[in-house]
Specification:
The chain is an alpha+beta fold and 172 residues long. The chain folds into 2 domains: 85 residues; 74 residues, Alpha-Beta Plaits, CATH 3.30.70. The chain is built from 5 helices and 4 strands. The termini are far apart.
Length: 172
């Protein structure tokens, strides 16, 4: 019974500290260094306490390292989910299409997404006109943007990048 309680404690503590670590990394990449440092303090404090507990026990069981590793893996999944759902970020999207239309632009703007259009010139013998849509959008609206583009041009070339900093422009 004592091993079971220790394993459950280790498992859930690892979920907590690894989830914090995942969120900390994302917050740090977004330039919020003070918040990242605060999260790091809590993360390492939890890790230290639970690692000490796991290593200093007189109990010997294969399940203790399994709980430690399982908590780490589960914490990675949960931390990724939390970061994706709750941490607002800006995504840079470039869409190259030969089927640009007023319908596409109007649908994108109706979602509150600003868009700039750049005419492209082909470097090969392809004479098909292409346009590039240059968009900075909240990560929460990325899926909707992809749906709009794919509905009109299923062959559109879409590139998505994490944006660290945006000044001015139109982002909701």
């Amino acid at each position: 019974m004592e091993v079971l309680i220790l394993c459950i404690t280790i498992f859930f503590a690892r979920i907590f500290d690894v989830s914090l670590g995942t969120v900390r990394l994302i917050v740090l990449v977004k330039g919020r260094t003070f918040l990242a440092a605060l999260i790091a303090f809590i993360e390492v404090m939890v890790w230290f306490l639970i690692a000490r507990e796991a290593l200093n026990t007189a109990l010997t069981s294969f399940w203790i390292p399994v709980a430690f590793a399982g908590g780490f893996a589960t914490g990675t999944l949960i931390g990724s989910f939390v970061a994706k759902k709750f941490i607002k970020g800006v995504i840079g999207v470039q869409v190259i299409t030969s089927k640009l239309s007023h319908e596409m632009i109007n649908q994108i703007k109706a979602e509150g997404i600003g868009v700039s259009i750049i005419k492209l010139e082909s470097t090969d013998n392809n004479t098909e006109e292409k346009d590039m849509l240059y968009i900075q959008v909240s990560n929460f609206k990325l899926k909707k943007l992809q749906q709009i583009v794919k509905k009109i041009d299923k062959d559109a070339f879409i590139v998505v990048n994490e944006t660290k900093y945006v000044q001015n422009g139109f982002i909701k």
